[in-house]
Write a structure and sequence with these properties.
Distance between the termini: 63 Å
Helix content: 40-55%
Shape: globular
Order of helices and strands: EHEHEHEHEHEHEHEHHHHHHHHHHHH
Number of helices: 19
């Protein structure tokens, strides 16, 4: 049998099926395989019916036989153990130079490990983040590949053909970096997504509880917001959700959804990574904790009958406060992305990745869940200054913060007065005030640490890197702790 297929894809859930159809639309012959082989037949007889260049395989051996060399196999399976299991199943059928691609939401340390493992066997590996959901997979996702550097030329044409395109026609896919870089960027994308969603939810809560606005009124507000600086996929879908009514009874579907949020772990991974790297990605952390708090539904219902707090309503200019909320949302969003890119910069330093931050912003410009007009400004900021240490220092973003700052502070203070929880708005503002502070109270913190644990401290009148210890009680002696951690 003469091999004719360009790539194989394993995993025929909705994302896998749609990626196959997308590749096939762009002229590529694809082998479809699933461990439950009946799903292969179902796919060929339904979504892929009549497509002669989508080939079904019922075994690993058959799948490999259809592939042109070097063979390229993409996994769209559940992250974790299933990826490792499929890799082991594939190894006996592959030869040096062949490529395995993991398109799931794998944790980046696993991608680092798998890249090293497969390269030790002469094979190539790519871990690529794929964002955009089932519609993105079908018509153009954002893709963030990283792994074996030699693997990129093998899939560049395929990936850049099937991915989303910016309004300028640029592909929302480019090589991110070695080993786990692609999945780290996807993880950070998902963390920012958590933050964006929480910020929008807090704006919704302020309008609903603080202003007694109806769903239709909020729908109209978000319709206007989506025409300006906040133009984005998440604002767009929130607008649609607020306007949606059940066709059967005409009731607002949003109002009958239980207020307990789920999560798949990528937001948590982002928060843990930020702690590991020492980067204060506070907004994403609060977004994760907000979901955790929402899950405590029974506890919250019981607490609401016992604990007291203010229940005041906003009694000023309603339209002016809605505009304040918009500006607070925009300013907080800037902080969220600033923190995300701080994390990417530190990860690049730690893992020796050469990340192109403008290119990453471009990859998120279309196809993915956080796609927005806003990302074009981020790309421009890094194009102007590739060494930019923080987006807050860019002239454009500094100007927006200056313009929005009064509204931002007004919204946070009014929310506190009214008893409406806005953890993401609040932590964004706290980070901004902390980042712009020349002096923080960490000198007292260091004195406390030195007092109880002899952890030492640096002095303002001595060079950095020189540490001192004080015998605060006269009883502790002059021996300091053996290690020092900031």
């Amino acid at each position: 049998m003469e091999p004719t297929a360009d790539i194989a894809l394993i995993g025929l859930a909705v994302m896998g099926q749609n990626l196959i159809l997308n590749m096939n639309d762009h002229g590529y012959t694809v082998v479809a395989f699933n461990r439950t082989t009946s799903k292969v037949d179902d796919f060929l007889n339904d979504a892929a019916k009549g497509r002669k260049t989508i080939i079904g395989a019922h075994s690993f051996e058959e799948m490999i036989q259809h592939l042109k060399r070097p063979r390229k196999v993409m996994l769209m399976v559940k992250a974790g153990k299933p990826v490792d299991e499929f890799i082991e199943h594939l190894l006996p059928y592959l030869e040096p130079g062949d490529l395995i691609i993991d398109g799931g939401n794998s944790h980046f340390p696993d991608t680092i490990r798998r890249t090293q493992y497969l390269e030790s066997k002469g094979l190539l590996f790519i871990g690529t983040g794929v964002s955009g959901g089932e519609e993105g997979a079908r018509f153009g996702p954002s893709m963030m590949p990283g792994g074996s550097v030699k693997a990129w030329p093998l899939v560049k044409d395929i990936f850049q053909a099937i991915c989303a395109k910016t309004p300028d026609g640029e592909p929302c896919c480019d090589w991110v970096g070695s080993d786990g870089a692609g999945h780290f960027v996807k993880m950070t994308h998902n963390g920012i997504e958590y933050g964006d969603m929480q910020l929008i939810c807090e704006a919704y809560q302020l309008m609903k509880e603080g202003l007694d606005m109806s769903n239709q009124e909020m729908h109209d507000v978000l319709t206007e917001w989506n025409k300006g600086e906040l133009d984005s996929y998440l604002i767009e879908i929130t607008r649609d959700i607020l306007g949606y009514k059940d066709p059967a009874n005409g009731e607002a579907t949003l109002d009958i959804i239980l207020d307990t949020a789920g999560q798949k772990g990528t937001g948590k991974w982002t928060s843990v990574s930020s702690l590991d790297l020492g980067i204060p990605v506070t907004l994403i952390g609060e977004a994760v904790y907000a979901r955790c708090l929402s899950a405590m539904k029974e506890d919250r219902v019981a607490a609401s009958k016992i604990l007291s707090g203010p229940k005041s309503k906003f009694d000023g200019d309603r339209n002016a406060f809605i505009e304040d909320i918009r500006q607070a949302l925009l300013a907080s969003k800037i902080v969220s992305y600033a923190q995300g890119f701080m994390l990417l910069r530190e990860a690049a330093r730690e893992f020796k990745w050469e990340l192109n931050y403008g290119s990453i912003a471009m990859m998120w410009r279309a196809g993915c869940i956080i796609r927005s007009v806003f990302l074009g400004k981020i790309k421009a900021a890094f194009q102007k200054n590739p060494s930019l240490t923080n987006l807050l220092l860019d002239d454009y973003f500094k100007g927006v913060i200056d313009r929005c700052q009064g509204s931002w502070r007004h919204v946070v203070s009014k929310a506190v007065e009214s008893g409406v929880p806005v953890p993401a708005f609040t932590t964004a503002l706290a980070f901004y005030d902390g980042y712009r502070s020349q002096r923080l109270p960490a000198n007292l913190l260091q004195a406390q640490r030195d007092y109880f644990g002899a952890h030492t401290y640096e002095r303002v009148d001595k060079e950095r890197g020189k540490f001192f210890h004080t015998n605060w009680t006269g009883k502790g002696g002059n021996v300091s702790a053996g290690t020092y951690t900031v």
